[in-house]
Amino acid sequence: MSAAVRSFDALALWLVPVLLALIPLWGQIRRVAVFDAFVEGAEEGLRIALSIFPFMVGIMVALAVFRASGAMELLARLLAPVTDRLGFPHAVLPLMLIRPLSGAGSLAATVDLLNTHGPDSFIGRLASVMQGSTDTTFYVITVYFGSVGVRRTRYAAGVGLAADLAGFIAALIACRWFFGGG
User: Fold this and answer.
1) Nearby residues of 57 by Cβ (< 8 Å), 6 or more positions away
2) Residue 23 is assigned to a structural domain of this protein
3) Whole-angstrom Cα distance, residue 140 to residue 44?
4) Which among 2, 20, 42, 164 is least buried, having the fewest CB atoms inside 10 angstroms?
5) Which DSSP string corresponds to 103-156?
6) How many domains does the chain have?
């Protein structure tokens, strides 16, 4: 192991404890009631978590029903001829359907694709790039809009889904360009 790698490992090992010591010290120097500020922040975080909890339960239940009912598989089979014609392998359709709804669900779909097709396969690479270049649109809307009490999201869902579609297309183009085939 080189000296640079050892130095980086030591830095990574000590960075969090050093920060945990320096932040309160800096607060004391600036005459901030550090513990009171910490408690106030934790209380606000708990209030936000409680306010978005119903939204989170709703989206998780909807996703579970969508998957358990077989509707996701049915939708994937119905869309397969269109996506195959556009160059998207039909194996990534469940990922494309779950990604806007759930980060954990889409990660599970990606892991399943990697286990089934291999990480160095075109599908494995495409799934990985899709996972990194799109977002959990409905989760983001639920958390961010829900945490500040916005009930009418207007065009946010449409714009978010359009951005996800652009991310899926960009992932396909990038994977074909860098890795070829498909």
Assistant:
1) none
2) no
3) 19
4) 2
5) HHHHHHHHHHHHHHH-TTSHHHHHHHHHHHH---HHHHIIIIIHHTT----TTH
6) 1
Token couple for 158: 């449409």
Phi, psi of 100 (to 5 degrees): -65, -15
Q: How much is the mean pLDDT over the chain?
A: 86
Quote the tokens at residue 106. Answer: 């889409």
3-class DSSP state of 169: helix
**Residues of the domain holding 127:** 53-179
CA angle 86, 88, 93 (to 5 degrees): 125
pLDDT score recorded for residue 120: 93
pTM score, whole prediction: 0.67
φ/ψ of residue 149, rounded to 5: 80, 15
75 assigned to some structural domain = yes
* Cβ neighbours of residue 15 closer than 8 Å, sequence gap 6 or more: none
pLDDT at 182: 60
149: buried, middle or exposed (CB in 10 Å: 19+, 13-18, 0-12)? exposed
pLDDT class for 171, splitting at 50, 70, 90?
very high
Q: Is residue 87 part of a domain?
A: yes
**CA–CA dist 98, 104 (Å, integer):** 9
